[in-house]
Amino acid sequence: MASVGRPIPAVTPDMAGFFEGARRGQLMVEKCDHCGALRFPAHDLCAKCLGRGATWVPVSGRGEIYSFNIMHQVYHPAFAAEVPYAVIVVKLEEGPKMISNLVGIKPHEIRIGMPVEVTFERGGEDLMIPKFRPRAR
Ligand SMILES: [Zn+2]
Fold first, then answer.
1. β pairing state of 97-102 and 115-124
2. What does the alpha-carbon distance between residue 46 and residue 24 come to, in Å, rounded to a whole number?
3. How many Cα atoms are found within 13 Å in the side-chain-facing hemisphere of 111?
4. Ligand 1 mean position to 31 CA, how many Å?
5. Residue-by-residue pLDDT tens, the chain, 137 positions
6. How close is the Cα of 33 to the center of ligand 1, in Å?
7. Which of 32, 94, 128, 137 is the most buried (most CB within 10 A)?
8. What DSSP character marks residue 17?
9. How far is the CA of 41 from the centre of ligand 1 (A)?
10. Stated pTM of the model
11. 112 Cα: distance to centroid of ligand 1 (angstroms)
12. Which of 37, 12, 17 is closest to 27 using CA atoms?
């Protein structure tokens, strides 16, 4: 059977700052240029003040599991060896929520509120993908 390449995120212009940060080992969110509200993912308008314009800023990379789902089905052949794996919603310490994967733990050990920290995995020649792993409180 031919190996199947993993799908990788499209680095669109509005998300370029996020992936540039990831290459440096920094987790990034957008900060509204008008009111300072943090948001993720990139968006044209601020949900708080409706202002346009934002700047990518680094955050701590720490947060907690807000929600999670365990994938038991093989939805893409490139991930067949990893089933079951966890898709999580992380609530960052700074506020924004982010969808990612949780690594370094068995899926049945995952709990809501579990503290996590970012880790970066290579997703391609010039692409680092932020994921999360458990951390001590
Ligand atoms: Zn704003």
1. unpaired
2. 26
3. 5
4. 8
5. 445 678 888 899 999 999 999 999 999 999 999 999 999 999 999 999 999 999 999 999 999 999 999 999 998 898 888 899 999 999 999 999 999 999 999 989 999 999 999 999 998 888 999 999 999 87
6. 7
7. 32
8. H
9. 14
10. 0.90
11. 29
12. 17
Position 96, amino acid: P
Q: Look at residue 117 and give its three-state secondary structure.
A: strand
The CA 96 to ligand 1 mean position distance, Å, reads 14
To which residue do tokens 């680092």 refer?
128
Residue-range domains of the chain with CATH: 13-134 (2.40.50.840)
In one letter, which amino acid is 16? A
Please tell me the total number of residues recorded for the chain in this structure.
137
CB proximity list for 14: less than 8 A, separation 6 or greater: 42
